[in-house]
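[job 4471] stage=fold_predict status=RUNNING
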Amino acid sequence: MTEKAPQQKKTQPSASDIRMQRGWRYLPRAMHPYISLARLDRPIGWWLLLLPGWWIIAGYSPNLETAFFLMAIFMIGAIIMRAAGCVINDLWDRNIDKQVARTKDRPLASGEITPFRAVAFLVFLTVLGLGLLVQLPLRTWIVGASAAPLIILYPLAKRVFGFPQLVLGLTFSWGIPVAASILWAGMPPFGLFLVYAGTVFWVIGYDTIYAIQDMPDDRATGVKSSALTLGARLKAGVALFYGAATACWVLGFYSLSGPDIWLFGVLAAGVHLGRQALQIDIAAPDTALRLFTSNRDTGLLVTAALLAQQVI
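[job 4471] inference complete, writing structure tokens
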């Protein structure tokens, strides 16, 4: 027992949800609770929200100048929307978060921010997001706003559905239809639906890995997750999701572009996902967090190949 104590302390870092990282800690202390609430100091969330939209923009914009402009718009939008999603999630989960070691010190759970102030901050973020949409066609407004029910439903799904990661997958893949609404005026090509489906599988896979960290607390609080549902079959389940993601991406991008440089990026991403699946260890939450965050590299491999396709 004495040998395990340091590991338990290391793998349940409750302060990790509130510790200011990088340059954020130099901002006025009054801003720190809002930075933590929006997870601005932990960029992996907005990266994972951003990358699927980047794939479509990078590969199918009419030229590189348009691609880089839209990629910048999408980056700002992803940061804002991910922040808004975190506020909504924490408003729903503040009482559950109090019972979980990793989340009990979050601003709403600890009482550092009141629900009223959190809602006011959410309104502020929504206004910023609407200001960004002015840069885009009206149909993109409609498609973007259509994700709102998914953002609201995810925290509720964790209470009643054994695979809430499916709802998260539908939400975090929404950058694909948003990007498509900019580049295609009518019904988008079928290949985009395959890319979207593959991305949903990808999100389910990596968030199942992320959920390994909270399995003991989720059992105690009654929160549901794909990690708990899969149980001893978790490793095989993630491998299956990642395999389905890669297959859908290959079929989808082939339908859109035919054989081209994108294939190198998707195959490299598939190899990276396969290595993740092999390294999964339910007994090692630190490993789960490392594997989860490495999915930014998965998305960047595909982005780089699609950009190269524009140049060459």
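[job 4471] summary: The domain at 14-311 is CATH 1.10.357.140 (Tetracycline Repressor; domain 2).
[job 4471] exit 0
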